[in-house]
Amino acid sequence: MPGWLPSGPVDVIWRPLTPADGPAWVACAVAVEAEDRTGEHLGADDFAWWLDDPGTDLARDSLGAFAGDDLLAYAFAPGLPGGDRVELRIEGAVHPAHRRRGLGRELLTRVIAAGEARYPVLEAHVRAYDGNPGQEALLAEFGFTTRRWFFDMTADLTGAAPATVPAGFAVERFTEAHAEELRLLRNRSFADHWGSPQHDPEQWRARFLAPNLFVPGLTFQVRDAASGALAAFVLSHHHAADSEARGHRELWVAAVGTDPGFRGRGLGGALLAHTLHAGAAAGYASAGLSVDADNPTGALGIYRRAGFTPSARWTVRIR
Questions:
Q1: CA distance 213 to 309
Q2: Which of 70, 118, 172, 319 allows an S-S link to 143, with CB 3.0 to 4.6 Å?
Q3: Model pLDDT for residues 24-34, shown as the tens digit of each residue
Q4: Helix 44-52, helix 22-36: angle, nearest 10
């Protein structure tokens, strides 16, 4: 197990996650949400997303604390290019029944040490939901400071109204023929967004068009009639575990973007309203999304006007 520090307490086995650990990871994630009430329900599809992510090698970028077949704590920690440094994006948790045993401290120590051994210039990122004082204290102990605030937002789709895009633009439903054109639009739209990397075709397909999450029938783009260029898009996902936990189908708005040259014309808001109306017609009762509170395009206001209200707040902590 190159790169990891020696194991801790004798009753805990530290090792990378493997594809066979999916059920144990789901069980741990379900217990974490039941305790922390983040509203983020994770399931087998989400574990499959990590397996298929081209930027994540489980043997190198994951770690679990096991007692027999039980997963007590875990972290995914892929390294992403961030200009002149590598950003170690740490996503992890400790099972509520095994907290206050030092597992979180050991987990962070190990993944940060492994990242520092691999990358000469490292910046560690951790996503943290409000309302977990133990995690708050641990991150402060490690020197993490808050860099950015985000909101999870939800909208009731009952009675979602249809919308019309401005004259001179036409709405298209996604087809496979649009995949590369949409990737390029997404990269242009998010070039000025904090913490949002440019995606190559492999990353784009694995992270946004993953067949277990992507909803092509509720993914739309707007095309400028004069130039023929794509101007805005809304890309939709469905997380089965979320819908099961909520007792109704929820549509996840994975990305909304407008080409910088077409901003200020109401395209994003109109296309989002169009998507929500189509989602309601397809049997979705609610929609959810995440947004950077300091998004430079004013996305928070657009989402509020579309009927979304904050349901949870989380931060990105950096050291």
A1: 23
A2: 319
A3: 999 999 999 99
A4: 120
